[in-house]
Amino acid sequence: MRVNFTVNGRRQEADDVWEGESLLYVLRERLGLPGSKNACEQGECGSCTVRLDGVPVCSCLVAAGQVEGREVVTVEGLADFAKQRAEHSGHGGACATGACGGTSLQDARSWTAKGTDSQTGEGTELSPIQQAFIDAGAVQCGFCTPGLLVAADELLEHNASPTDADIREALSGNLCRCTGYEKILDAVRLAAARQGEAV
Amino acid sequence: MDFLRPAGWEEALAAKAEHPTAVPIAGGTDIMVEINFDHRRPEYLLDLNRITELSEWEVGEESVRLGASVPYTRIMENLRTELPGLALASHTVASPQIRNRGGVGGNLGTASPAGDAHPALLAAGAEVEVESVRGTRLIPIDEFYTGVKRNALAPDELIRAVHIRKADGPQQYSKVGTRNAMVIAVCAFGIALHPETRTVRTGIGSAAPTPVRAEAAEEFLNAALAEGGFWDSGKIITPSIAKQFAELASGACNPIDDVRGTARYRRHAVGIMARRTLGWTWEQYRGSGRTLEGAA
Ligand SMILES: Cc1cc2nc3c(=O)[nH]c(=O)nc-3n(C[C@H](O)[C@H](O)[C@H](O)COP(=O)(O)OP(=O)(O)OC[C@H]3O[C@@H](n4cnc5c(N)ncnc54)[C@H](O)[C@@H]3O)c2cc1C
Ligand code: FES
Ligand code: FES
What we know:
The complex is a heterodimer.
Chain A: E1 3-7, E2 10-14, H1 23-30, E3 49-52, E4 55-58, E5 71-73, H2 78-88, H3 105-109, H4 128-136, H5 145-158, H6 164-170, H7 182-198
Parallel strand pairs in A: 1-5
Antiparallel strand pairs in A: 1-2, 3-4, 3-5
Chain B: E1 2-4, H1 9-18, E2 23-25, H2 31-36, E3 44-47, E4 57-59, E5 63-67, H3 72-78, H4 84-91, H5 96-99, H6 104-110, H7 117-124, E6 126-132, E7 135-140, E8 145-147, E9 150-151, E10 158-165, E11 171-176, E12 187-194, E13 199-205, H8 215-227, H9 230-233, H10 239-251, H11 263-285
Parallel strand pairs in B: 1-3, 2-3
Antiparallel strand pairs in B: 4-5, 5-10, 6-7, 6-10, 8-9, 11-12, 12-13
Helix pairs in contact in B: 3-4, 4-7, 8-10, 10-11
Bound molecules: flavin-adenine dinucleotide and FE2/S2 (inorganic) cluster (FES) (2 copies).
Domain FAD-binding PCMH-type (chain B): 1-169
GO molecular function (chain B): FAD binding; oxidoreductase activity
Keywords (chain B): FAD, Flavoprotein, Oxidoreductase
């Protein structure tokens, strides 16, 4: 079957989709967006987290056919998404409709955090949460990072100064096997503090 | 496989009548796991996401009519006052991502003895509104669970909503698991005080082939509270009553040994949860002002 939906603000069309296929599979294998990770395919790890009509979900548990006509934001579009949200704050937040430009599939596919310096993120446009993950040293192997970024960004969108309990709760569906979570908590606190300063 | 995408409820009922083997998919948090792991290859998937009324609820005089697909997150955020037991139970389900998609309709569809909504529904008192092209019927929650992962739905029926009695007293939900998030219950216990009818109802999860009420424990407690004039006096429930209630709750279990826990442990833990949740709710009823938290 064919599925039409919006990914990172742009209309996309996926063809030859098998009816039992997940949104995660469509993103990775049909649209060439491997940012969302596939670790468990059973909702346990959160590494496949995307926004579906704004709501964080495990894309491995959404049937492809269920996203017809709906809006998805993946980690590849997160920097643009956060930028638009910042520009539009005060009147309705981020724009997922494409009217603000969004991220093209080409740009999304070639998205990298390398910039001029892969250690610091310098030279690349990163969302505040991405920059904070780098600055706080919250990335080790990086497999869990995309899902955590999407979940943490959504937390900071609706809760500008989360408590530690809020952060733990919001990230309780994302597993990390490397960091021990402390640096991840640091990163979210850092992003929240910077967000606070900016206002 | 065919993917059916009805735009409305009538269309969904017609599709289910035409293809009784079609598997409804709401949040997909149960069904997609089975498909991803090749445990299930349904001939038809029947997507319910476009049927907006399934994600809505109405608060009535006596009860809340909760649409089958209202996600747990919405229940936690919006129905704490009306459905405190279910809101607490919802909060223990999996993770935010899963709670944003999964709902009570899917929990009832799967009818796992470990489903967290069940003990809360049993304790509050509920009826499941199911519909087919043949008509609508209300199934009392006590009659809904018919076996391990089996329910009373006919092949052409869909769950439209659950009618849950609005709380008229304190409710609690307690769940045993190895951590706070992302945990399937080793066993669970729900309790609801109903001061208007001077009754206490319960629900036990993961400790029998189906979710069950601890009926003997309820009967004993209702009689003991009435006899001792506890509802009027609001005095502390004596330890011997609480102990007997816990033992009877334990006796209502018919658990198995599995990877999550032994039968013996489950019986024991259900007794402990019964005593504790009775204590918490009764304290709340007495209006001591102590803040109560659901605990795992
Ligand atoms: C990682 C993970 C952790 C989990 N943890 C928990 C937990 O802690 N506690 C818990 O209770 N559950 C848990 N679950 C299971 C699941 O999230 C719940 O059972 C949830 O309520 C299912 O809802 P859904 O809408 O996603 O169901 P779906 O997967 O869409 O459907 C489930 C079943 O119900 C049927 N169905 C759905 N809607 C209807 C309807 N309207 N009419 C008739 N049939 C219908 C479907 O055909 C299917 O058989 C977990 C799942 C995952 C993946
Ligand atoms: S891959 Fe989806 S939650 Fe693990
Ligand atoms: S950084 Fe390796 S899993 Fe989190």
